[in-house]
Structures are given as structure tokens and as C-alpha cells.
Amino acid sequence: MRYGLHVSISGKKGYATAIDEAERLGITAIQIFAKSPRSWRTRTLKPGEAERFREARELSRVATGVIHASYLVNLGAQGELWEKSVFSLADDLSKARALGLEYVVVHPGSGDPEQVRKGALKALELAPSPARLLLENVAGGGQKVGRRFEELAQLIEGTPLGVCFDTAHAFAAGYPVHEDPAGVIAELDRVIGLERVPVIHLNDSVGGFNTRTDHHANLGEGQIGEALREVVQDARLQEKSFIMETPKEYDPYNLQVFRAWTGLEAS
Question: Domain named Xylose isomerase-like TIM barrel: which ranges (predicted)?
Fold first, then answer.
């Protein structure tokens, strides 16, 4: 099992800062933003930066690397917003290729599901990459695409796209992770196929069941609670990469809970 956190690239070493943080925390999976998540401005790789990142990772225990796309990306939009979203996502795919990262995760956006599919495939066309592009299930609300597993399955059918499964989003969208985590995982497998879900965002939820509220809580302290223990202990998920997404100051606590649930120790 690979597990870890969303870590920062802010520091003198640039992207390699994330590897230093991973080593300090003893984790085997990382997620980063390749640029500011709330700006359309890209971040240019400095000379030698990608090479330094790859070299640092080679000497580390980080087995899975993920880029989370900008929060501004909306693949379901039309016109200029869609074009900017596709370009931003293509930029992340290009960065993943340069850095040697395995996955890029993106929220599908709001609007037309077919436009989401078209946008994801266009980004892959613009920036061919060995990194796999994953569409994340969302909490829902408004015209957001990707709340139901069936919708995600239709989006990725016949494509190289995969899915990132977020436990808090699924709970907020109406999947009873708090009462029947094994059943939710079985449904995920039946509808999408676990082989197409390599990354799991392991998050508790501040908002209640089926409220469409996307607000993460520390493990075991939210509305899902101890049921998340069953998720990480499920035999069907032992080859997946688990990423926790909470504010940085809570990283030690969430790692402590995760390791207590799994029996794993710092690498």
C-alpha cells in the first residue's frame, strides 16, 4: 500500500521540496499542485529543476506521484473558459511527463458531460504523457459533472482516462461510506472497475450525508468517522495509492491515524 499527503512545492528547491517533505514525513505517495491552483498563470520549469526532482525521487521512498489540476479548470464549460481549462490541464500533463509523475487528477467541472470528455481528451492530445489522467468524483451541487459513478463510467468508456475516488465527495454525494463502506467499494467496482481507480483521496467530511458539501475533515473526526478504517483495510484496495487532503498543520495527526488503522509505520 502506498500512502501520503498533498505536499507543497514552495521552497528553494522548487519541485524537489515535495520530495524532502515526503522523506521527512516517511510517506510513499505525494500529491502536488504544479502551479497555483487558483490562477491561470503557468509555472515555468527552471533549468535543471525537473532533473533535480527526478534525482531526489530516485533516492527517496516515493512510489506514487500525483499532480492535482487547478481548481479553476472547468472542462464542462464553453468558449474561452473551456479553452483555458484545456490548456491548463495540458500544462499539468506536460509537467507530469517532465517530472516523471504517474497521475494527473482533475475535477470534471460543471455543464455538459460530453464537453468534459471532449476537453479531457483534447488535453491529452495537446500534451501526450505517460501520466494517466484521472477524473475525480465530486460532491455534487449545481450542474457539477461526476457525482454519480455511472456518469464517470460513461465519461471514461473507450478512453485511457481513469478515476480518482474521493471518500468525502462520495459521502456528500449520497454514497453511504459511513454505514456500508464495503458496499460502496463494491458499487465502485461494479460500475467503473477498480482497475480504473488507481488513486484514492482518503478524506473525512465536515458536511453531512448527501448534502453536496465539499469540506474535508481530519480522519475519524468528521461525519464518516471510523468507517474510513474499513476503507483502508479493504483487501480490494491494498494496491491503491491513498492521498489525504487536509491543511498542512494536521498532517502529523492524519498520518498517525492512518498508520494506526493500517499497522504501517513511517518508511
Answer: 19-249
Contacts of 137 (CB under 8 A, 6+ apart): 146, 147, 149, 152, 163, 164, 165, 166, 169, 170, 173
82-119, pLDDT tens digit by residue? Answer: 999 999 999 999 999 999 999 999 999 999 999 999 99
Angstrom distance (rounded) from CA 86 to CA 108: 11
Whole-angstrom distance, CA of residue 201 vs CA of residue 18: 18
Count CB atoms within 10 A of the CB of residue 53. Answer: 25
Region of residue 164 (left: phi > 0; alpha: psi -120 to 50; beta: else): beta
| Residue 267 resides in a domain | no
Report d(CA 199, CA 205) in Å as an integer: 18
For the whole model, what pTM was predicted?
0.97
Domains: count for the chain = 1
Is residue 195 domain-resident?
Answer: yes
Helix (H) / strand (E) element for 105: namely strand 103-106
Domain span holding position 32: 2-262
Q: How far is CA 249 from CA 17, 59, 60, 99, 245, in A?
A: 17, 26, 23, 26, 11
Cα–chain-centroid distance for residue 62?
Answer: 16
Active-site positions read 38, 68, 71, 107, 136, 166, 169, 201, 214, 216, 245
Residue reference for cell 468524483 = 137
35-81: pLDDT as tens digits: 999 999 999 999 999 999 999 999 999 999 999 999 999 999 999 99
Please report whether residue 142 resides in a domain: yes
